[in-house]
Amino acid sequence: MSEEKSAVLYRMVLPDHECPFGVRAKQMLEREGYEIEEHILASRDEVDAFEEEQGVQTTPQIFIGGERIGGSDDLEAYLREG
Q1: Nearest Cα residue to 63 out of 4, 10, 3, 2
Q2: pLDDT per position in the chain (82 positions), as tens?
Q3: Where are the domains of the chain?
Q4: Are 59 and 12 within 8 A, CB to CB?
Q5: pLDDT of residue 1
Q6: β-strand pairing of 6-14 with 35-41
Q7: Distance between CA atoms of residues 38 and 26, nearest Å
Q8: CA distance linking residue 14 with residue 2, whole number of Å
Q9: Degrees (nearest 5) of the Cα angle 20, 41, 43?
Q10: pTM score above 0.85
Q11: How far apart are CA 16 and CA 70, in angstroms?
């Protein structure tokens, strides 16, 4: 039996804007059969605090197996490499 695949996804969903890269990352993870622990960053302050805490400049950020994969482009490359 294969090990369950899981990922942690932090993505921005503001009242007037849902980040399309976060949507794309979620869709890629779902398509690959990942169980997703989703964290919604619902305000600009939450986004800024998360980016500062993680030392990154963009969202979404995806973590698999405790390792930061990066954003949606990084996730696409990670999944392509298998």
Answers
A1: 10
A2: 446 899 999 999 999 999 999 999 999 999 999 999 999 999 999 999 999 999 999 999 999 999 999 999 999 999 999 8
A3: 6-81
A4: yes
A5: 41
A6: parallel
A7: 9
A8: 36
A9: 100
A10: yes
A11: 24
Confirm if 59 and 68 have CB atoms less than 8 A apart: no
| Dihedral angle over CA of 51, 61, 57, 40, nearest 10 | -50
Alpha-carbon distances, residue 26 vs 1, 17, 35, 60 (angstroms): 25, 16, 10, 9
Residue 3 confidence (pLDDT): 62
Q: Is 43 in contact with 29 (CB distance < 8 Å)?
A: no
Residues 6+ positions from 78 with CB-CB distance below 8 Å = 64, 69, 70
Q: Which CATH superfamily is domain 6-81 in?
A: Glutaredoxin (3.40.30.10)
* Tokens of residue 38, six digits: 């989703």
